[in-house]
DNA sequence: CGGCAAATTCTCCACTTTGGTCCAATTTTT
DNA sequence: AAAAATTGGACCAAAGTGGAGAATTTGCCG
């Protein structure tokens, strides 16, 4: 039995993992991501996943131990992709002006949230009520992503680019507008006609997020409670 | 077999519905709302619902025909509550200034979204990928709610209170920040420490939404494309 | 290059859950 | 009290679950 993906070296000679096995693992992982994002954890059967992957279902047990571990592996895989893309794209602008960094961040976030809608779908599926899976998700992937972002946000508030108030709350709002809306693309397309598969629509979303959250005409203090629109021509 | 809740009068003497039956229907409906909001449609079993309601599971078939119809009945019930509360509370301010109307709307929306988190949870569960249920949800409940709101939003844009851009998109963003965040309360509580069960947190959310989306310093034109923060001291 | 052991896949099974039906028993309404 | 409305219990077919082993590849050794 394997379970481990990053295969460590502990026993004397744990023979190399066969190539075909990483293929089936990959197939299972992407099938799982897709299936879970549609039906949620409870609503998705391992057989359905195996079928989508074109693989016999006992292989799930063999490669991932059980449904729960498969879910975690799938989530980890998709988050890794997302984070890598985000961090890499952000590194280029590390020493740009804070305001531009924010703008780049939003655009990048929107771009990848659209490329990989399953990520936010899965979050939405899990995050609405407490569970062990949610705790795990938060500890393993959400918090590590949030903390640095919130720190940057606080800086933006200090210089008056972002509106005052609880930075964590502010970030959640931005995330809701970006990832949340993109995850709900099917509904939004039907109700409003906006099709995020068209690049212009995606740009419009990013533009609006930036203009709404980072318009930059806020008093450059962080202590002030948000009350009404106050401006000070920081620009 | 009953099926119909609003019982019409077509046959000669369709004897009155018994009192105990409306009780079990009610119990089933609220159990269904709760269960579906947690597990989604596929992830919730009719037996689970019956158990929560303290009722024998074949009664679901008797009262609602099948799982799908039960889901629709539950969604309808919860939307009706929500809409009634929203409309009633809004009617009081019908001839206040547009800006105040917007403010009241946001606060009311946040308030009821918090009171009835199941509503937005169910939307999140269903809206992330196409399905017959989603189409039905949109036609029956979402669109009727959205259309008048978008109209008001356009007015707010015209007078410069709301930022320019596609009003439908703007509304979706606001909805994401209000209902979306409230539906994800468990996650947000763990990641950020913000507990929306505390009234102050709820107020802070409403305040921030208002200050971000209705700060009121936008050029009073609707044709302009959102590009960057522009202000014109409309106040 | 041949063979052996480990790694991987396939076949089959035992068990539970699920949505739904059927009909007898039990209230209610009239 | 009769008839309709409602409920309870037993039952079904289909689908879901994890798992045990046999069968088959594949990598590694000489």
Task: Please summarize what this structure is.
The structure is a homodimer of 235-residue chains. By secondary structure, chain A is mostly helical. The first copy, chain A, has two domains: 18-74, Homeodomain-like (Arc Repressor Mutant, subunit A); 96-235, Tetracycline Repressor, domain 2 (Orthogonal Bundle), CATH 1.10.357.10.
Can you give a write-up of this model?
By secondary structure, chain A is an all-alpha fold. Chain A has two domains: 18-74, Orthogonal Bundle (Arc Repressor Mutant, subunit A); 96-235, Tetracycline Repressor, domain 2 (Orthogonal Bundle), CATH 1.10.357. The radius of gyration of chain A is 21 Å and the shape is elongated. Helices cover 67% and strands 0% of the residues of chain A. The model of chain A is unreliable at 1-12 and 222-235 (pLDDT under 50). Chains A and B meet through helix 1, helix 6, helix 7, helix 8 and helix 9 of A and helix 1, helix 6, helix 7, helix 8 and helix 9 of B. The structure holds a DNA duplex (30 and 30 nucleotides).
Key terms for this structure?
homodimer, 235 residues, mainly alpha, Arc Repressor Mutant, subunit A, Tetracycline Repressor, domain 2, 67% helix, disordered C terminus, DNA-binding
Which CATH architecture of the largest domain in chain A is right?
Answer: Orthogonal Bundle
Helix and strand succession of chain A? HHHHHHHHHH
Radius of gyration of chain A: 21 Å
Helix fraction bin of chain A: 55-70%
What is the CATH superfamily label of the largest domain in chain A?
A: Tetracycline Repressor, domain 2
Count of separate DSSP helical elements of chain A: 10
Number of DSSP-assigned strands of chain A: 0
**According to CATH, what is the class of the largest domain in chain A?**
Mainly Alpha
Low-confidence stretches of chain A: 1-12, 222-235
CATH topology of the largest domain in chain A: Tetracycline Repressor, domain 2
How many separate structural domains of chain A?
Answer: 2
Largest interface: pair, residues per side: A-B, 67 and 66 residues
Derived structural class of chain A: mainly alpha
**Silhouette of chain A:** elongated
Report, as a whole number of angstroms, the end-to-end distance of chain A: 61 Å
Q: Into which percentage range does the β-strand content of chain A fall?
A: under 5%
The major beta sheet of chain A can be summarized as:
none
* Quaternary form: homodimer
What's the overall average pLDDT of chain A, rounded?
86
